[in-house]
Design a protein that fits this description.
The complex is a heterodimer. By secondary structure, chain A is mainly alpha-helical. Chain A has 13 helices and no strands. Helix content of chain A is 76%, strand content 0%. The chains are: A mainly alpha, B alpha/beta. At the A-B interface, helix 9 and helix 10 of A face helix 3 of B.
Chain lengths: 290, 255
């Protein structure tokens, strides 16, 4: 029943060592993951820039050749010139501040209050089950259709835009937080109770942290919704804002200025999107250990 | 005096109008500082019993006495560790281990200072600021057990703590658990499927039977302590194993 044991010597080795001694003259392939990833990154980014330049170049070129009518389609060059004029001589910068301000405030209030509502559903399943159909019903209401009412209710100033952005985001945030709450591991709650925890301990130590990824996942959608809410508010009635600028430019047939508004809004949307991505990274910094 | 006494515990559930009995008339008495195991097929009411002792579930009849006091429905009276390690992934190992102290109101700083030497002593040295995902299964289980120990109850319930570990790690963890047990002088109630594990660790073994779950035998383990791996190959060990195996085999034939 006793087998023969043969000991096998093991020695440490490196690629350079192998080359020098045992395998002189051969090539040794060392996989370098980080270098590979770097190379891919450079290729992706330069590719992305190239596509952007191509689209803008094609746009400019087609309008110059009159394949696209530059009256309707404007052109990158004209948009830049009109935009520069609007920024230096017109009110583009204050309009931009107005729109982004209303969007961000509405977004933050909507996200915070919505998340709080969603998290509160953890405390009582009866309360959450009674409320849930109303939450879904309210989510189904086209909030933008309420814009005229809200503008009359809250005036044509800043407030009505914030309220619209808020209404656009609050339910989405609440539903996201509620999904998080529903997915809390029941065994984690059990474990905490076995350590003598009360309900508020479980809420702060388990429910909130484990719902964070769910809440964060709604941020990117919500920032776009908030911007849409603000713009519609400005369309209805406003004295300032990019939405008002676009509406005004359309009415006086200044299509170049409309395009300026659209481009500025696109950039605003991108910047805000990147902002939420940064926020997401920051919030999840301590959660990425799973 | 008995540390923990389970008196006439039964638990009935009703589902879809049909009543079934998860636990029938369980009676146990565990002396202070003993290591007691419970073995039996799955669905034998072991987990029900543990949930009752831990105060997470109320029995239909009977009492659970800890030091003579009825603790039915009182969670937090005993330490309880489940099969999953249930470490919070967003907390470091050290911060996971102090969870019980934190809930009791001890400041984080104080709790950390108290827990750190324990981590060092019981095989988690250098891992205190790592996150659970960075550790092996055995280490996570050790952290979970230290968390239960730091909660500092006299009686600790362990529900198949090593069930998910590979054979080698399991053997190592068993010796580690025995060391901790003799250092801390706790009373341990241990659920397992593994007969070897039950014999190697315990002073007494309760054998449970399948539905309705009830206790069908109580076996004393007369192996000297301290025990090491050599105990696994002793004659007493294999005789006991034979006895328990045949008891569980009868069980399966009935099914």
């Amino acid at each position: 029943m006793y087998g023969n044991t043969e000991k096998i010597a093991v020695k440490q080795t490196t690629a350079a060592h192998l080359l020098k001694n045992d395998r002189a003259g051969e090539s040794v392939l060392v996989e370098d993951e980080s270098q590979k990833n770097r190379k891919i990154r450079v290729q992706v980014i330069s590719g992305q820039i190239l596509v952007g330049i191509l689209i803008i170049g094609l746009w400019e070129w087609l309008t110059r050749l009159s394949v696209l009518d530059s009256y309707y389609w404007s052109s990158p060059g004209m948009i830049l010139a009109t935009g520069w004029k609007a920024a230096t001589q017109g009110t583009l910068m204050t309009d931009l501040a107005y729109t982004s301000g209303a969007t961000v405030i509405g977004f933050l209030c909507g996200t915070l209050i919505g998340s709080a509502i969603g998290l509160s559903f953890w405390w009582s399943s009866i309360y959450s089950k009674i409320t849930e159909p109303y939450l879904i019903a309210f989510n189904a209401v086209p909030k933008l259709a309420l814009a005229p009412v809200l503008v009359i209710m809250f005036g044509i100033g800043f407030n009505s835009k914030v309220i619209l952005a808020f209404l656009m985001t609050v339910i989405v945030a609440a539903m996201a937080a509620y999904s998080g709450v529903k997915n809390v591991d029941k065994d984690l709650e059990k474990m905490l109770f076995s350590l003598g925890a009360r309900k508020h301990h479980v809420f702060f130590k388990v429910v909130i942290p484990s719902s964070v990824p769910w809440m964060v996942s709604s941020l990117k959608i919500n920032i776009a919704l908030a911007l849409a809410g603000t713009i519609v508010g400005e369309f209805i009635s406003s004295k300032q804002g990019i939405g008002r600028m676009i509406l005004y430019a359309g009415q006086v047939m200044d299509l170049n200025l409309v395009w300026v508004g659209v481009v500025v809004l696109s950039f605003l949307a991108i910047v805000m999107y990147l902002g939420t991505v940064g926020l997401e990274k920051w919030v999840l910094k301590n959660k990425n250990h799973e | 005096m008995d540390k923990l006494k389970i008196v006439h515990n039964s638990k009935f559930f009703r589902k879809n109008g049909q009543e079934f009995c998860a636990l029938q008339e369980a009676n146990m008495s565990v002396a202070d500082g003993k290591f007691v195991s419970i073995i039996g097929p799955s669905g034998c009411g072991k987990s029900t019993l543990f949930n009752i002792i831990a105060g997470l579930l109320k029995p239909s009849t009977g009492q659970v006495l800890l030091d003579g006091e009825n603790i039915v429905g009182k969670s937090g009276s005993v330490g309880y560790m489940l099969q999953k390690d249930l470490l919070l992934p967003w907390r470091t190992i050290l911060d996971n281990v102090i969870l019980g102290l934190e809930i009791r109101g001890v400041s984080k700083k104080e709790a950390r200072a108290h827990a750190l030497p324990m981590l060092k002593r019981y095989g988690l040295k250098g891992f205190e600021s790592h996150y659970p995902a960075e550790l092996s299964g055995g280490m996570r289980q050790r952290a979970a057990l230290l968390r239960t120990l730091l909660y500092d109850r006299d009686v600790i319930l362990l529900d198949e703590p090593f069930g998910a570990l590979d054979a080698q790690t399991r053997l190592f963890m068993q010796s580690w658990l025995l060391k901790i047990w003799s250092d801390f002088k706790k009373t341990i109630l241990f659920v397992t499927h593994d007969i070897d594990e039950a014999i190697f660790l315990s002073d007494e073994i309760y054998v449970f039977s399948h539905r309705p779950g009830r206790i069908k035998a109580k076996v004393k383990v007369n192996l000297p302590r301290p025990r090491n791996e050599e105990a696994l190959t002793q004659l007493t060990f294999s005789q006991l194993k034979q006895e328990l195996l045949s008891m569980l085999k009868v069980e399966q034939e009935i099914k």
